[in-house]
Amino acid sequence: MPVYFLNKNEISFPHPTLARRDGLLAMGGDLSVERLLLAYTHGIFPWYEPGEEILWWCPRERFVIFPNEIHISRSMRKYAGKHELRVVLNRDFADTMHRCRMKRESAEGTWISDEMEAAYLRLHREGYALSLDTFEDGKLAGGLYGVSIGRCFFGESMFSERENGSKAALIALARMLSEKHFLFIDCQFHTQHLESMGGRFISWEAYDRMLSEGI
């Protein structure tokens, strides 16, 4: 299956089902608000190494968390009972995203470049991206950011300043989205951490139906 090269002057993508087996669909283009919105509303997202060509992905099997199925472990319940936890929506989107970048950059490396930070800040200013932070006993514990369109949330990255900080943020996000009748949190790629919190694989067909309904 070929990888399609995008024209910067034309906001379009090949059909999502044309992605390779590993999920890679296309390369090139730009990170304009218009292109990002078109991508996310069709189950496509950018993920690439800083300084390299933009790569666009659309995995055939999707890893998601249904907001009302978020798993809260016994240890997390004990943690919540021991501390005063506060949740803040859109505290400082740019700062939250940058903290996600720094935590990954100092560990295994990150896809969050200056270009990505600027692009998602534009999405946030247009009302299509949000951040959520948790405070433990008055101190910043962790947070996350992602893209929010209709009743669909596309998770991008999380960070922890304290143990359990990112878990608390994800639980808070799921509860908030459940109250607003969101259909899913798209985790993009599988991790053991997200699986332990309720993430599971669904088929492209099931994902596509929910995406159409939610958008």
Write the layout of secondary structure elements.
Blueprint: E1 4-6, E2 24-28, H1 33-40, E3 45-46, E4 55-57, E5 62-65, H2 74-82, E6 85-89, H3 93-105, H4 114-125, E7 129-136, E8 139-149, E9 152-160, H5 165-179, E10 184-186, H6 192-196, E11 200-202, H7 204-214
Parallel strand pairs: 1-2, 9-10
Antiparallel strand pairs: 2-4, 3-4, 5-10, 5-11, 6-7, 7-8, 8-9
Describe it.
The chain is α+β, with helices and mostly antiparallel strands and 215 residues long. It has two domains: 56 residues, Leucyl/phenylalanyl-tRNA-protein transferase, N-terminal domain (Alpha-Beta Plaits, 2-Layer Sandwich), CATH 3.30.70.3550; 152 residues, Leucyl/phenylalanyl-tRNA-protein transferase, C-terminal domain (Aminopeptidase, 3-Layer(aba) Sandwich). It is 34% helix and 26% strand. It has seven helices and eleven strands. The strands form two sheets. It has a seven-stranded mixed β-sheet, with helices on both faces. It has a four-stranded mixed β-sheet with strand order 1-2-4-3. Strand 7 and strand 8 form a beta hairpin. The model has no long low-confidence stretch (mean pLDDT 94).
